[in-house]
Structure prediction request, 410 residues.
Amino acid sequence: MRSNWKQRLKATKKAIDRRGLLAAAGLTAACSSGTKPAAEEEMPSELGSAVSAYGERSKFETTKRLVPDLKRPQIGSTTTPLADTEGMITPASLHFERHHAGVPEIDPAKHTLLVHGLVERPTVFTLEDLKRLPSVSRIHFVECSGNSGREWKSPGAGDVQKGFGLASCSEWTGVPVKLLLEEVGRKAEGKWVLAEGADACRMFRSLPVEKVISDGIVVYAQNGEAIRPSQGYPLRLLVPGYEGNTNVKWLRQLKVVDQAYMAKDETSKYTDLMPDGKARMFTFVMDAKSVITTPSGGRKVGGPGFHEIRGLAWTGRGRIEKVEVSVDGGKTWKAAELQEPRLPMAFTRFRMAWEWDGQPVEIMSRATDESGYVQPSREELTAARGMNSNYHYNGIKAWRVKAGGEVESV
Ligand SMILES: Nc1nc2c(c(=O)[nH]1)N[C@H]1C(S)=C(S)[C@@H](COP(=O)(O)O)O[C@H]1N2
Ligand SMILES: [Mo]
Prediction:
């Protein structure tokens, strides 16, 4: 990794030396001249603010989730400002929210999880019980299957937050579902697991038992602290790689059953209407997807010269294997650098050095995952699925950089 970084720095320096790119970009002019640090008079001579019990970000930072204008603000979603986040982790305070019936207030001392159905020993677990059990911490994305939904009808997503912000990535800590099912003695005929939330919408989903056994986690912590109320405090189910809806928040029961329950959120909703009038059901897996976040729609490229193209890629099928970037409207593609570690079913950051000559261009990214699945173009996706779907849009996203540096959605 170190040599990788050195190589990158060397390549960047070479590019800068060769073309005087920083000067051309006006970067060196913008930096103050001289060799002294900040002026003496700007240095504080008084003490700064006091130590504090719970941290807050600098008052100069204003990045926020986008809260749409909703008639009933309890039912809706907010989006993560992905173009303003770095690395692979979404701060809990910026993790997108999707609630069907608002955020219930749950006292963790009173909350329990019932695990029952086709099991030998139906059991009620308190939070305390769950925290005593062996735990795991894993980094995974959650993506609402409605993310980028507007792109089905037209390439309408004006910017990354509006078009891609129903996806976030956290470190989740909790108890593997496998362990809980062993504790209660799942019977062999128990092929599905129903998960139910404790909010007013009675969120209910049926999940194949093999998936929840191999990857499922009953989660009580996010990014090192108790999971946020928006994310399901005090307990949520995490089904890595599956559509957001299956990650049932405020989890109150897991019931082992012999077949899927055909609940409202897997029949009237969260199905994908095909051109022939049939609907795809149980489309659990989130297919590979990527988006360039810098530069991106609604932003501006600060003049010709050196830039780093940055973006995020993820897949419900394991690891991201490759992300290719095109800076000529899809004619040629080059592999971007992938930030390590590349974890299964987690955001993967990609980066590529780019010298912009100031001419209008279209830039785009294409992800390939370890299963060999390649992110489709809009044409390939709509040819296969038609135009009736609302969910699971993962077509290649292009941004147009105009001569003045303004970036718009294509
Ligand atoms: N109990 C319950 N679980 C729920 C929901 C809900 O409204 N109630 N929304 C689902 C949907 S549609 C999504 S996309 C994810 C969103 O998770 P997040 O709010 O933590 O980002 O939670 C899912 N789990
Ligand atoms: Mo969702």
About this structure: The first helix runs from residue 2 to 19. The domain at 289-409 is CATH 2.60.40.650 (Immunoglobulin-like). The CA atoms of residues 139 and 295 lie 26 Å apart.
